[in-house]
What we know:
The chain has 8 helices and no strands.
Amino acid sequence: MKVQEASESVIEMKDDDPDHFEIMLKFLYTNEYELSVEEMDAPQLVENFIHPVGVHLLADKYEIDGLCIAAANAFGCPDSWEHSDCCFKIDTDGLNQVVGVHYGACALVGSDMGGRIVNYMFRHCKMNDMAMQIGHLVHSFPAFGADIVIAELRLRCLGQCAKKHK
């Protein structure tokens, strides 16, 4: 980002994606998370996964908690979180892109978006088919591996709690 004189009307934000920044500005004015018309024609991988991750990273950078929550809620197929059927299944290449975008910029273990990515992966990906790729991603992004362990422990704990209450 380049600091300019107050008399200039343009500020260059070189570190920030213009599409994500536009979504952030709209959110600041309307308190609503919405994609622009151009993004609605984007492939589902971009619309449902990449944009929410990028917007979440930007919102986190500028500490806009409401937008962090909105972007996390927009990740994946929000209407199908309770069902195994999803409007869009992510493949190995898609998982590489999503994990790379998020964990390449955020090494924080236990972030909202990291949890969404891992939970989506557990619910909607064929884990046996992706085992080798997941191993490579864990090697490249250790925080991703830690998030997988945390999610697995939560699932086991929830399973144990459910058995105790029957």
